[in-house]
C-alpha cells in the first residue's frame, strides 16, 4: 500500500501543481515514476525551490511598483534592491552616452565646411599647418629629478684550495677581486682549486650564479697528461701524425691483455736491431693478465722508424720514474723497479743531440689553458728549465739528462733563442701547429664549469726541430698568467664589479 502511494503522482504536491495545465508533462512524470522514483523525488524538491523563487520575484515586483523613485529615497534599502538599482543606473548611463554621441554626430561639419573652417580663437593667428615630411625643432624639456637607484650589494663568492706550490699565487690573484673570500675545505665553495680529481657528479647542477661550482681540473685530464694515452690518441688518428709531434715510442700497458704481445714484440724488435744481437736474450715477465682490451699501435710505429736509436728512455706514464736504456737487461730492471707503483710505460727514443743552454740540456715550458667552453689558449711568455750539470751523453747522472732544476726566465730564454736564430714568433707558430694536431678529449661529458692550465714541455735539437716530450697537469705559472686565465674563465662564470681591462697574455688557438 505504501509503494502504491509513492508510485502515484499525488504524493508529490509540488509536481502535481506544476503539471495541472500540462497533461503531457504529467504523463511523462508518471512514466518516470515507475522506473526511477528517486529522480522524481529530487524533481519535487527542485520544483519547491522554484516555487519559492517565483514567489520572491512576485514580491519584488509588487514592492517596486509601490515606490516612485527607488534611488533617491531616504528609507533603508534591502540587499536585493541595491542590485536592482545598480542595474538600473547602468541602463540609464548607456542611454545618456548614446544621446551624447548622437548629438556629436549631428554637430559635426560636412567635408566642405571643414575645408573652409576658420581658425578658432584659441589658436595663434600666425599659425601655419606643417607640410608633409617637413622638419621642425622640438623644445628641450626640463630634466626630471628622479631619485637614484639603490645600489645592490655584490654577491660574495667563496673559494678553497689544497695545492701547496701555487697557493700564494691563487690567494694573491683572488685578493684583487674583492667579492672572493677563502673558506675551509669542508664547506661549500664556488671555486675548488685541487690537485687530485674529484667525483664530478657531486658538484651542484644548479645554474644560478650563487650555486655554481667551478674546479681547476678537467675530468679526463689523463688524455693529455698520461704519456701513454697521449701517444695512443695521436696514433688513433694517424701514426704518421703522431711522429710529427712526439719522438718515436712504444707503449707498454699492463692494464690491458695485449701487454703480453707488446712486451714480446718490443723484445724481438730490440734484439733484431741491436748491434750485439748474440748477447741479447728475452726475459720472462710473469704478472697478472687482465681481460680488458686495448690497442697500442706499436707495430705501426716500428715500421715508420727509419734508423734504430742508439739510446732509449723508459718513462712511467703518470709518474716521475725514468731511465736511459740501450739493451734488454736494463729494460727488465726498470720494469721490475716500477711495476708495483706504475702499470703504464712509454719506451721513447732519446734525443741525443739537444740544443744546449750554456753547455746544459734544457727544455721549454709553455702553459696552455683549456676553458669551460673547450677553447684552447697558449701563453705568449714561455719559460725554460735547464739541468744543473753540463751535458754529457755518456754520463749516467740523472741531473745531466732528465732532471732540470734551474728556471730560465722568459726574457733570458728569448735572448738565447734570438742568439740561435730562433725568433719568439717562429717558436710560437711551431708550437701552435703541434698543439692543433692533438685531439682534445678532456671534457667528453660536457661539464659546464671546468678549466685547467697544462704545461707543455718541448725540447729543441741541434737541427732546430721542436719535439713535445711531455704534458704536465700541474705546471708552474706566473701571476699575470693566472690573472689572465681567471679573466677568461672565472670572471665570465662569476661576474664581478671591479673589472680591469688589461692586455691579455693568452693567445686563442681555437
UniProtKB/TrEMBL annotation:
Pfam families reported in the protein's UniProt record: TTL
Comp. bias regions, Low complexity: 102-113
PROSITE patterns: TTL
UniProt region (Disordered), positions on chain: 102-126
Superkingdom of source: Eukaryota
Protein name: Tubulin-tyrosine ligase family protein
Source organism of this protein record: Paramecium sonneborni
